[in-house]
Amino acid sequence: MPPIINAQRISKAFGAKPLFQDVSFTVSEGDRIGLIGPNGSGKSTLLRIIAGTEPFEGERKWGYNVEESFYAQHQLEALNVNDTILEELKSAGSQMTEQELRNLLGCFLFGGEEVEKKIKVLSGGEKARVALAKTIVGKANFLILDEPTNHLDIHSVELLVEALNKYKGSLILVSHDRYFISKVANKIWEIENLKIKEFAGGYEEYVEWKKRMEEKKNEQAINAQEKMAKPAKKETTTPAKNDVEKISNTSQDAQARKDLQKFQKQFQQLEEKISKATTRKKELEAALADPSTYADKNRFLETESNYKSAEDELYKLNAQYEQLFEKIMELEGKLSS
């Protein structure tokens, strides 16, 4: 398959914290990549590097005749506030008819006369949905999507999956919604230990593969522990000091793997909590951006209070995340040394 983009020796750091070191990758025509990894590992940064909006060390080259479209919520200011929703989609250069555009907007919760609303009167969540719809209907043959399911309900996520599966181009996406990734991606990139590990298959296949690898590691560690701990027949002599150290080290490795497995499970649960808390915070941000909220004093005070609570909860969850992430990195470092 012809390359969409080819990158060589990519490195990126924020201050003293490195995200990638000497990473090379290729996106080929037909790739639909789900980019995963813990929060703070650099997923969104990598999307910006691919899109050309983030400085980096290394080399990035586009393939022939590639037209990319980048969706990220911080880019909502690119919308023309004086356009209607329908006019904004027409400006994307799509060959779709007006009725087809109206049908698509219905998938993004804009039905009937709502498509005639001006962009300037929309809430933050509504603008995000317009920007996502505009990204999909444009003439790009490569989509870069950062958390596209935020602000979408379950039904709308299903409709987005359907729209992306009909899309003829290539794409790379970041999402906390593992169901969404499993329905769209045909390849998984995982950011781990400052590198990108590629799995040539869908998300469900990737999860099964990771499970098998983890079980194999645990089995090998247990077998090694039992073999080292089992006394030799007809031997009554005391083991040599270095033999005792080997047994001890193997036992420690087995325990470390158990701890790593436990922390990884906790980490996954924590990611889900952070995703929900982030969605809740953004919903409240959208409510605070809605002028009608301020028409009712009690509604405003309640929304503001809920927003502060959501902020506090997200702060605590992120703190837990950082602590757990450090534990996992420490254990992985020990086991790989």
- The total number of structural domains is 2
Rg from alpha-carbon coordinates: 24 Å
- Helices and strands, in N-to-C order? EEEHEEHHHEHEHEEHHH
Strand order of the largest sheet: 5-6-7-3-8-9
Classification by helices and strands: alpha/beta
Question: Strand count, sense and closure of the main sheet?
Answer: 6 strands, mixed
The name of the CATH architecture of the largest domain is 3-Layer(aba) Sandwich
- What's the overall geometry? globular
Low-confidence stretches: none
Share of helical residues: 40-55%
CATH topology of the largest domain: Rossmann fold
What portion of the residues fall into strands of 2 or more residues? 15-25%
SSE blueprint:
Layout: E1 3-14, E2 17-28, E3 32-36, H1 43-51, E4 57-62, E5 68-71, H2 85-90, H3 98-107, H4 124-137, E6 142-146, H5 154-166, E7 170-174, H6 178-184, E8 187-192, E9 195-199, H7 203-229, H8 241-288, H9 297-336
Parallel strand pairs: 3-7, 3-8, 5-6, 6-7
Antiparallel strand pairs: 1-2, 1-4, 8-9
Helix pairs in contact: 7-8, 8-9
In short:
Helices cover 52% and strands 18% of the residues. The chain is α/β, with parallel strands linked by helices.
Characterize the structure shown.
The protein has 337 residues and is of the alpha/beta class. The protein has helices at residues 43-51, 85-90, 98-107, 124-137, 154-166, 178-184, 203-229, 241-288, 297-336; strands at residues 3-14, 17-28, 32-36, 57-62, 68-71, 142-146, 170-174, 187-192, 195-199. The radius of gyration is 24 Å and the shape is globular.
